[in-house]
């Protein structure tokens, strides 16, 4: 059966070609275009001046990691179980655990993370570490400005992750 | 009309006044070039919903200075197979011819400065507009030689396009102001402005002439939508493909200076020059009026650049020869008949 487009075809009538009508159409179209660009100019800009103005992030935005402490005791939440490292698809987390002693109590559990490093140049910010953690010790924050000059500077140690991060990124208000 | 001799005008300018005038006009108008460059980038941004340059200086106001400074410190590369002295001379020709037209733009009538009567214009030659067209004719050597002496096929194609385009549109442009010359009865730009001051701004009776001059002006300055000589999509950069550093800056500045000069010519020939309608303006405000009117046209140039896509080459040629040239001729004919009948 031959293809029959039926009623779906919209026939476009080409404007008649001619010097006078063609010139007039070109002139009218030019004016229309000028009006169009001018109205775009008065609308203002849609781009933002980035380093001064920043796009606000959503509350569940996955940025740089943070490690947490208990607010009352000041002990670290991380117990060095390495579940985050096991969950990490990019293999960027390194945890070396050590035993807590009564003299040196770092975390609330039996052990603590003596070394906790995240290689942010490998991290894909999937958030699996956050999901894997049984104590909510690691979460992903809102900071996305992590550019640096050296690869080695992108390996974040436990002290850097525990430190109160600079709030450089605006958070979106609920109605935005 | 015979040439106004110094004896007829009744005053003679001392040499220091001529030098002071030349310096003042050149410095003021040449400083419009970086401003036009900045306005181009800022306004193009606004027309496309973005800011344009904002980094250099407050609001990016020093961007043009940074652009020029960067170009001047770059290596001035000369291709091995180029015709060296022509290659070096071409941007200078472009620059000089663009600046030469400034000499005849009138900014005000004769005024008293420190007891010396002088006209606020470089010279007022009796050939007036022809002077501008003569230098427009030489200006295309800059493009032509620049492209040819680079010994590169893209430069050559660009300069060939530029040559054909400039010659075609120069005819339409020249014919479009014949109506003006017939109505005023003089080629001198000062006479044209004085006539407009006494009668009516010439864009009203010479509406067709004005439109043709406007479109041809776009083509003459190689501004979009007539920037086929540049054609960066298909010709890399057109006639200045092989240029770099200060010589490229010279071509670049010449393009913007041409835009400034053509805007000044529009103002002078069709929009009353220093005249403000319905107001007997003081002399000191007249140069500002001329520059303000010029900026309106520069804005229009940028506005059109943001709007229209580049023409195809055959469209360019058929538009110039089949539409603009007959229109300009018709305009000259009708004006001639009307001038004879109404007188």
Automatic annotation (TrEMBL), chain A:
Transmembrane segments: none annotated. It comes from the Bacteria. The keyword NAD applies. Binds 2 [4Fe-4S] clusters per subunit. It is a peripheral membrane protein. [4Fe-4S] cluster 2 binds at residues 88, 123, 126, 129. [4Fe-4S] cluster 1 binds at residues 78, 81, 84, 133. Its cofactor is [4Fe-4S] cluster. It is found in: Cell membrane. It is an enzyme of class 7 (translocase). Keywords: 4Fe-4S, Cell membrane, Iron, Iron-sulfur, Membrane, Metal-binding, NAD, Oxidoreductase, Quinone, Translocase, Ubiquinone. GO terms for molecular function: NADH dehydrogenase (quinone) (non-electrogenic) activity. Its EC number is 7.1.1.-. The keyword Nucleotide-binding does not apply. Residues 66-98, 114-143 form the 4Fe-4S ferredoxin-type domain. It catalyses: a quinone + NADH + 5 H(+)(in) = a quinol + NAD(+) + 4 H(+)(out). InterPro entries: 4Fe4S_Fe-S-bd, 4Fe4S_Fe_S_CS, NADH_quinone_OxRdtase_chainI. Belongs to the complex I 23 kDa subunit family. NDH-1 is composed of 14 different subunits. Subunits NuoA, H, J, K, L, M, N constitute the membrane sector of the complex. NDH-1 shuttles electrons from NADH, via FMN and iron-sulfur (Fe-S) centers, to quinones in the respiratory chain. The immediate electron acceptor for the enzyme in this species is believed to be ubiquinone. Couples the redox reaction to proton translocation (for every two electrons transferred, four hydrogen ions are translocated across the cytoplasmic membrane), and thus conserves the redox energy in a proton gradient. This is NADH-quinone oxidoreductase subunit I. It comes from Solirubrobacter deserti.
TrEMBL record, chain B:
It catalyses: a quinone + NADH + 5 H(+)(in) = a quinol + NAD(+) + 4 H(+)(out). Keywords: Cell membrane, Membrane, NAD, Oxidoreductase, Quinone, Translocase, Transmembrane, Transmembrane helix, Ubiquinone. Its EC number is 7.1.1.-. The keyword Translocase applies. It is found in: Cell membrane; Membrane. The chain crosses the membrane at residues 15-39, 85-107, 127-145, 166-188, 200-219, 248-272, 284-303, 323-342. It is a multi-pass membrane protein. GO terms for molecular function: NADH dehydrogenase (quinone) (non-electrogenic) activity. NDH-1 is composed of 14 different subunits. Subunits NuoA, H, J, K, L, M, N constitute the membrane sector of the complex. HAMAP family: NDH1_NuoH (MF_01350). Belongs to the complex I subunit 1 family. NDH-1 shuttles electrons from NADH, via FMN and iron-sulfur (Fe-S) centers, to quinones in the respiratory chain. The immediate electron acceptor for the enzyme in this species is believed to be ubiquinone. Couples the redox reaction to proton translocation (for every two electrons transferred, four hydrogen ions are translocated across the cytoplasmic membrane), and thus conserves the redox energy in a proton gradient. This subunit may bind ubiquinone. This is NADH-quinone oxidoreductase subunit H. It comes from Solirubrobacter deserti.
């Amino acid at each position: 059966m031959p293809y029959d487009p039926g009623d779906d075809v919209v026939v476009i009538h080409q404007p008649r070609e001619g010097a006078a009508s063609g010139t007039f159409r070109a002139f009218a179209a030019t004016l229309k275009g000028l009006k169009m660009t001018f109205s775009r100019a008065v609308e203002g800009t849609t781009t933002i001046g980035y380093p001064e103005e920043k796009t606000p992030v959503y509350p569940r935005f996955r940025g740089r990691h943070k490690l947490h402490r208990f607010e009352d005791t000041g002990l670290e939440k991380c117990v060095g179980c390495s579940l985050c490292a096991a969950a990490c698809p990019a293999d960027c987390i390194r945890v070396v655990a050590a035993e807590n002693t009564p003299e040196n109590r770092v975390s609330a559990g039996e052990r603590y993370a003596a070394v906790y490093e995240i290689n942010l140049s490998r991290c894909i910010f999937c958030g699996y570490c956050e999901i894997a953690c049984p104590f909510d010790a690691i979460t992903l924050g809102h900071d996305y400005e992590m550019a640096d000059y050296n690869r080695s500077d992108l390996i974040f140690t436990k002290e850097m992750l525990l430190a109160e991060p600079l709030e450089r990124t605006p958070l979106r208000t609920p109605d935005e | 009309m015979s040439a106004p001799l110094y004896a007829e005008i009744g005053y003679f300018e001392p040499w220091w006044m001529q030098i002071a005038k030349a310096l003042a006009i050149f410095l003021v108008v040449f400083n419009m070039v970086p401003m036009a460059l900045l306005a181009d980038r800022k306004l193009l941004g606004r027309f496309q919903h973005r800011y344009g340059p904002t980094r250099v200086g407050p609001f990016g106001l020093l961007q043009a200075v940074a652009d020029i400074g960067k170009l001047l410190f770059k290596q001035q590369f000369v291709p091995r197979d180029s015709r060296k002295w022509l290659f070096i001379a071409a941007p200078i020709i472009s620059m000089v011819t663009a600046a030469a037209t400034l000499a005849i733009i009138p900014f005000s009538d004769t005024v008293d400065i420190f007891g010396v009567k002088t006209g606020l214009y470089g010279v007022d030659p009796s050939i007036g507009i022809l002077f501008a067209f003569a230098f427009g004719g030489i200006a295309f050597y800059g493009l032509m030689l620049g492209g040819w002496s680079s010994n590169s096929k893209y430069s050559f194609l660009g300069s060939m396009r530029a040559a054909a385009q400039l010659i075609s549109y120069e005819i339409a442009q020249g014919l479009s102001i014949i109506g003006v010359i017939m109505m005023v009865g003089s080629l001198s730009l000062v006479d044209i402005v004085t006539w407009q001051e006494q009668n009516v701004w010439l864009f009203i009776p010479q509406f067709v002439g004005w439109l043709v001059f406007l479109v041809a002006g776009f083509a003459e300055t190689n501004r979009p939508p007539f920037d086929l000589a540049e054609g960066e999509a298909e010709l890399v950069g057109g006639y200045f493909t092989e240029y770099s550093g200060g010589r490229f800056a010279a071509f670049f500045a010449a393009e913007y200076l041409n835009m400034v000069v053509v805007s000044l010519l529009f103002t002078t020939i069709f929009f009353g020059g220093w005249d403000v309608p319905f107001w007997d303006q003081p002399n000191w405000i007249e140069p500002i009026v001329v520059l303000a009117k010029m900026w309106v046209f520069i804005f229009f140039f940028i506005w059109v650049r943001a709007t229209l896509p580049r023409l195809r080459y055959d469209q360019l040629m058929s538009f110039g020869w089949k539409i603009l040239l007959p229109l300009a001729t018709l305009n000259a004919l009708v004006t001639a008949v009307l001038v004879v009948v109404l007188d």
